[in-house]
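Reviewer 2 asked us to include a model.

Predict the structure of this chain.
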Amino acid sequence: MRSWLLLVLGPSLVGCYNYAPLESGAPTPGQVIQLSLTQEGSDRVARFYGPGISQLDARVRAMRADTLDLEVRRARNQQGFESSFALDSLLLPRSAVASISERKFAVGQSLLLGGVVLGGAVGAAAAISSTGRGNGVVTSGGASSPQ
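Predicted model (structure tokens):
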């Protein structure tokens, strides 16, 4: 019973995402995006996230005339070092943004990862269940003498 449940639910527990250029003109509220910043943008966010920030991963709270209202999740500097935040609020002018990418579900990678996780879980379950079974032979620790 458990193995069928694992077979059905296992692949849904893992998921891979990629960032692709934003297809629509402007991001929508609730959308998860990745922003590449201009030098102006890097200078603007330096007091909050440190110098040399080149990318932000965020969820869009609102899109105002020329300003993005964001919940920042991650900031990445030019060397690739990341800092995570608990949805830190930030207002950022569009002029501070070089490009915007949207997060998309990667079906192929998710299926592959789900298969690997599922295969490992099934293999581990089989190994655990087989170690509990003996070979049917009962042995004694020492020799006994007949009486």
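The chain is about 30% helix and 35% strand. The mean pLDDT is 78. We have added this to the supplementary material.
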